[in-house]
């Protein structure tokens, strides 16, 4: 009589997930959503495509999850001060707005009309997540009295991320990735919004 003990499946290797998602991001950066091919992702990751389908049965699922990694790890630093919070955030936000992530952003915007559901997921999991973290930093500073109560944290977050995006796009990646540049961005924003100064009416 055979044993009734259920057989255990092979343990899932998390390193494969990491490799596949990294390869999927590269694929999106180069080919966009329309040109995204699971076979190509498998080749980039060095895995059997059957392993990909076992994890992501649908191509769009893989695309959405890959897009969700773009702002992964972006968290509120909670250092207790606006300047040190922003200084910790600049590298993470800069990574969202420099290659390869900015390439994906531009492609997704171009293809938004053709893939509205995927673009919505990209907005939610990458751009909106990034903005929510930055906004929380300014809101916390407001509660500590570091910035004026009348200041809109959402608009301050837009100014901060907009400055990083503009410098990366027009001046080049070094303008947001070099430590000296990151300190300059931080000091400018703190000087503009800090010290509890009320915004002009």
From TrEMBL:
Entry keywords, A to Z: DNA-binding, Transcription, Transcription regulation
GO MF assignments: DNA-binding transcription factor activity; transcription cis-regulatory region binding
Protein name: HTH tetR-type domain-containing protein
Domain (HTH tetR-type) ranges: 14-74
4Fe-4S is among the record's keywords: no
Residue ranges for the DNA-binding region feature of this UniProt entry: 37-56
UniProt entry tagged with the keyword DNA-binding: yes
Lineage of the species this protein comes from: Bacteria, Bacillati, Actinomycetota, Actinomycetes, Mycobacteriales
């Amino acid at each position: 009589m055979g044993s009734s003990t259920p057989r255990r499946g092979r343990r899932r290797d998390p390193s494969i997930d990491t490799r596949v998602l990294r390869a999927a991001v590269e694929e999106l950066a180069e080919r966009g959503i329309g040109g995204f091919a699971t076979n190509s992702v498998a080749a980039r990751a060095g895995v059997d495509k059957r392993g990909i389908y076992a994890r992501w049965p649908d191509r769009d699922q893989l695309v959405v999850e890959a897009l969700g990694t773009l702002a992964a790890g972006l968290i509120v630093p909670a250092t207790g001060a606006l300047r040190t919070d922003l200084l910790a955030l600049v590298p993470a936000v800069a990574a969202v707005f420099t290659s390869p992530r900015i390439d994906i952003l531009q492609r997704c915007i171009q293809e938004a009309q053709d893939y509205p559901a995927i673009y919505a997921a990209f907005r939610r999991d990458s751009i909106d997540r990034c903005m929510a973290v930055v906004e929380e930093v300014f809101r916390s500073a407001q509660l500590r009295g570091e910035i004026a109560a009348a200041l809109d944290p959402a608009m301050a977050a837009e100014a901060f991320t907009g400055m990083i995006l503009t410098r990366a796009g027009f001046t080049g990646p070094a303008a947001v990735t070099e430590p000296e540049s990151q300190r300059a961005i931080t000091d400018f924003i703190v000087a503009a919004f800090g010290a509890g100064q009320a915004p002009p009416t």
